[in-house]
Amino acid sequence: MAAYQAPLDDIRFVLFDLLGSEALLQRLGRDGASREILDAVLEEGARFTGNVLAPLNRVGDQHGCTLDPDTGAVTTPPGFRDAYMQFVEGGWSGLASPAKYGGQELPHLVDVPFKEMIDAANLAWGNFPLLSHGAVSALLKHGEEWQRQAFLVPLVEGRWTGTMCLTEPQCGTDLGLIRTRAEPQAGGSHAITGTKIFITAGEHDFTENIVHLVLARLPGAPAGSKGISLFAVPKFRVDRAGNMGERNQVRCGALEHKMGIHGSATCVMNFDGAEGWLVGEPDKGLAAMFTMMNSARLAVGLQGLGLADRAYQNALRYSRERLQSRSLSGAQFPDKPADPIIVHPDVRRMLLTQKALVEGGRALAYHAGMLTDIVEHAGDAAERADAEALLGFMIPIAKGCLTEWGVECTYDAMQCFGGHGYIAEHGIEQLARDARITTLYEGTTGIQALDLAGRKLLQLRGEGLRVFGRMIAGFCAANADNEAVAEFIGPLRDQAAEWQALSEGIAKRAAANPEEIGAASYDYLMYSGYVALAYWWARSVAAAEDSVRDAGFKAAKRETARFYFARLLPRTQAHRAAIESGAAPLMGLPAEAFGN
Ligand SMILES: Cc1cc2nc3c(=O)[nH]c(=O)nc-3n(C[C@H](O)[C@H](O)[C@H](O)COP(=O)(O)OP(=O)(O)OC[C@H]3O[C@@H](n4cnc5c(N)ncnc54)[C@H](O)[C@@H]3O)c2cc1C
To answer: In angstroms, what CA-CA distances link 381 with 228, 267, 377, 387?
Structure first.
């Protein structure tokens, strides 16, 4: 089985040395989040995820969830429910939720590492509480007061869980195609009728109730995405006083059979005139959903990061133990029958790729968590506005790149294991299978790319890119005489200038031909992710040098940064060439001429 131990050392480095969280949180008035509290949460989180969740990862994969077709009840894998009880008793459910509704109101900067640990330990299990967070945010921002009182406390406390019901058979990316109907009823409720598919945690045995947040159409609603409303539909009815009543007309009709995350219940949910309550304004359901998009997308990015880290931990251990062949420069361990495979350049290529993407990706993801705290708590309006623009720009990069890199890293880890990675024994193939979904749900990589290039770059005129450009320029200027990072400053500055020019080029071409944006978007997303990571790697070297870390830690950061700049950052040039080739090579072939 693939082992997992939370990488507390690097997590602390990113939080405290690189991002300076302590000072930041004090400045934001989050005095309750002292270093002692943050450390305690990290330690306890590492214990819970390592001791309770990680051992259940394989169990979940082997057992999966089961459906009783007569009752529609879903049974989760052995141990999952008990782990959830421990999660709730430990107060983990409402870590970053408002104290007013039973949460602990800790900063996102603390919630983000905890999520990474959960995802690394057991992604399938992590999906059950994850979806509750989306429901909590939606109700918090858009619910009426009675809805908040009735639904939020049990959701925050973890006594109930939530779901997000968007997808239908004919409607995936394009939510304008939703057909589920909502008929107004006496008493202010609505009768919800329709079928939703692929619903994560749609049914399970963890809690006494489940609150489905459902997108549906009111009678006479405009066609397309402008006519969609959001409804809270509990499994057991809930009155305005918060009392739970009889079973609602919503039922799990089937469980999907999937490539990975077998322990996560992916449900077909049938709503048959179920009682639902409008959340927010009529026809404004999509806008309500989008307010929680940032946190949901960052959460899935963290899934990619967590799986990549677990895969790397195991590949590293294996590469130190597995003896095959001699080093090209002669035996490194002559007393052994062969050298460990970590001596071979190609194995080091794969290990360093994982290390560079995981540790750099961690900085990128935690920084997004930090921006969320700044957006919510900074006193200065200009600081909030900058953070908001940058967060919006970074979210598709975090979701898109961290999940693509999660797939790459789990496959690289499998390659380090050779054939032993492909068989089930070491648990690596499960990580690769589990990672695959992350580039698909919560908006495919293609959709993240369109969000970045189409909306954040063109519609919002690249404000987030400008803020990031200022950060890079500020770092380069401040470290102009810093010998520790001198070798990275020039390449980083050049790359940032190229990023700006490339962005302007896309904008120009898109003005003449709208297909240009879709043709450039994927490569632009990945290009942006690699430049962002170059910044985080250069900053990591500087932060490590300034810290009290030992020489080994500092050298590891420096050497990994060198690897990153030499071997991964050049990927940008292939992406740049693809972007600059424009739409013509993609759009020339008529659809019917693709062949059979
Ligand atoms: C395990 C699992 C769990 C899920 N959990 C949930 C859940 O809890 N709630 C929920 O509502 N949904 C859930 N989903 C659904 C998931 O969010 C969708 O599968 C995803 O949004 C993509 O939709 P689709 O599968 O219909 O693909 P499609 O929308 O049909 O897309 C197919 C391909 O076309 C591309 N494409 C589509 N439109 C465009 C465009 N305009 N430009 C460029 N490319 C485009 C896509 O990128 C993709 O590559 C889940 C899915 C799975 C598999």
So the answer is: 32, 43, 10, 10
- Compute the mean pLDDT over every residue in the chain, rounded to the nearest whole number: 96
CA distances from 19 to 25, 27, 463, 539, 575 (A): 11, 13, 22, 10, 29
Give the separation between CA 556 and CA 93, rounded to whole angstroms.
Answer: 35
Residue ID of nearest Cα to ligand 1 atom 2: 198
Tokens linked to 418: 């050779």
Closest CA to 39 of 119, 120, 130, 114: 114
Q: Is the CB of 132 under 6 A from ligand 1?
A: no
Q: Tell me: the pLDDT tens digits for 227-241?
A: 999 999 999 999 999
Closest residue by Cα to residue 355 from 416, 283, 400: 416
Hey, what amino acid is at 334? Answer: P
If you measure from the C-alpha of residue 400 to the centroid of ligand 1, how many angstroms do you get, rounded to a whole number? 14
Query: What is the rounded distance in angstroms from the CA atom of residue 290 to the CA atom of residue 297?
Result: 10
Distance 367 CA to ligand 1 centre (A): 27
Rounded distance between C-alpha atoms, residue 252 and residue 244, angstroms: 20
The CB of 164 under 6 Å from ligand 1? The reply is: yes
Is the Cβ atom of 167 under 6 angstroms away from ligand 1?
A: yes
Dist. CA 362 → ligand 1 center (Å): 26
Q: How far apart are CA 68 and CA 161, in angstroms?
A: 20
**Residue 189 backbone dihedrals phi, psi, to 5 degrees:** -90, 180
Tens-digit pLDDT profile for residues 425-463: 999 999 999 999 999 999 999 999 999 999 999 988 899
Q: With a threshold of 0.85, does the pTM exceed it?
A: yes
